[in-house]
Fold:
Amino acid sequence: MLFSERLSDAAPELADHFEKSADWPRAIKYLRLAADRAGRRYAHREATVLLQQASRIGEQTARLRTARRQRRKFWKHGQRI
Structure:
């Protein structure tokens, strides 16, 4: 068995691990890999759920980045006063 096949088999567990540890880029990577694997097995509902989860994490990550940027701007502005 090739390493990539084993990695694909472990993708759902890895995605869960990285999501719980707030390593969003890796969680998304492994969710997409798991969705790809599900799609190849014709498990389209599972693939859809996994991709929706990856999308939700991506949206949350974008909101967090925006909030951090706004907070930095606020503090920079506060320091100028």
Summary: Residues 15 and 27 are 4 Å apart (CA to CA). The mean pLDDT is 88.
